[in-house]
Design goal:
The chain has 378 residues and is an alpha/beta fold. Helices cover 45% and strands 15% of the residues. The protein has helices at residues 2-28, 98-101, 111-118, 135-149, 194-199, 203-211, 214-220, 223-227, 239-283, 299-303, 313-325, 332-343, 357-371; strands at 54-60, 66-72, 90-96, 123-129, 153-158, 177-179, 185-187, 291-295, 328-331, 348-349, 352-355. A five-stranded parallel sheet has the order 4-3-5-8-9, with helices on both faces. Strands 1-2 form a two-stranded antiparallel ribbon.
């Protein structure tokens, strides 16, 4: 029996190995997304960046509907330009997260790419962005950019999830900086495991993780949801029991809303305190007149015909802090709203909420108009 069992294990292992090798060969022939290969983050290398000097392929979605080729430059950021601190050109640095990284579009069609098309020839635009970065990480990028490049302007792109994710209480992704419970800026070191380095070399593994996004799919999956029955399929035969269950659900919902309100109040206080420390750290750079914040629009409200933002208190707090501390900001809400009302074009992809080329172009044009550097290179 033991020999039979071991033989079955051997046969199963062989079948799995052959199947994996066959899948690996197939997916190597397909435009599977390449890993950007986030580099170790530690005391000696404290600023998050990717493996430099590479060309990578990125696919949006599991069916390879939208494929782009991206250059990772000498500093490890996605840009067609190599960063050169010593050249004579004036610089505009765009700082942010996945919206500046812009994996969904070519580097030339990103905000910083469009800026390079619109700026005078004695200017160039650098994009410093890593997916998952919040406001706390933008401080680190800004410090590096200001010290090394001394840009004419530093444009910091702010999106909706940048606020709470700046707090270590809500997020702690390796490689990033966060504000801890005492609102001190702390770094979460990162070193890729041996297993991760091996999986990066597998086209099939990259497809499952980067294109199919199997981890997020598994998170949404549950046996309970699979086996659940819709309310329309249930025959309620006992009115008294039905009423009792309804009352219990109502009480539960009321308690949940009450707890949510209390939690929201606490979060609001933490966000306000975080912003106070954020602007304090930013002021220490002594670059106030050259920093401009670019605020993402509430695209959902625009598509519903509302010109103003919905109740997005974090953006309201941020704008208030900008005005209080003398920082300039560009709110994309009005620009996007006007364009949508005239053209009816949306600003993201059908299967991806990140900006499409239109949104990047309009953002670049708004920046150029604000700093009054528009030039017709034709």
């Amino acid at each position: 029996r033991r020999k039979i069992f071991l033989a079955k294990i051997r046969d199963l292992t062989l079948i799995l190995l052959v199947t994996f090798l066959a899948l690996e060969l197939i997916f190597r022939l397909l435009p599977v997304s390449d890993s950007l290969e986030l580099q170790p983050v530690n005391r000696n290398s404290p600023v998050a960046h990717y493996k430099p000097n590479r060309l990578v392929t990125r696919s949006t979605g599991y069916s390879f509907d939208h494929i782009v080729e991206k250059k990772v430059n000498n500093y490890g950021y996605l840009s067609d330009l190599n960063f050169e601190a010593s050249n004579n050109k004036k610089k505009i640095v765009v700082i942010g997260d996945s919206y500046v990284e812009a994996l969904q579009v070519s580097n030339a069609a990103s905000v910083h790419g469009y800026l390079n098309k619109l700026l005078p020839l004695n200017y160039e635009s650098y994009g410093i962005g890593v997916s998952g970065s919040p406001l706390s990480q933008y401080l680190i990028f800004a410090k590096k950019a200001i010290v090394e490049f001394k840009p004419e302007y530093a444009i910091i792109l702010v999106v909706a999830n940048d606020f709470d994710e700046s707090l270590l209480q809500y997020k702690a992704a390796p490689g990033m900086h966060y504000f801890d419970a005492s609102f001190n800026l702390v770094r979460i070191d990162y070193r890729p495991t041996v297993l991760k380095q091996i999986l990066r070399t597998s086209a099939f593994a990259r497809y499952l993780h980067l294109d199919y996004k199997i981890l997020s799919r598994l998170e949404r999956f549950s046996f309970q949801n699979l086996m659940s029955v819709s309310a329309s399929q249930i025959n309620i035969t006992n009115k008294r029991t039905h009423n009792s269950d309804a009352q219990k659900r109502e009480v539960t919902n009321l308690l949940a809303r009450k707890n949510l309100d209390a939690s929201s109040d606490q979060k609001d206080k933490r966000i306000k305190k975080m912003l106070q420390h954020f602007f304090g750290e930013l002021s220490s750079l002594d670059y106030r007149r050259r920093i401009i914040f670019l605020l993402d629009a509430d695209r959902g409200s625009i598509y519903n015909g509302e010109s103003k933002r919905r109740d997005q208190s974090f953006f309201k707090y941020f704008i208030s802090f900008c005005e209080k501390n003398g920082y300039r900001y560009l709110d994309l809400q009005e620009s996007f709203s006007q364009h949508f009302s005239k053209n009816g074009q949306k600003f993201e992809f059908l299967n991806d909420a990140h900006w499409n080329e239109l949104a990047h172009r309009l953002s670049a044009e708004l920046i150029i108009d604000r700093i009054n550097l528009r030039v017709d290179k034709n």
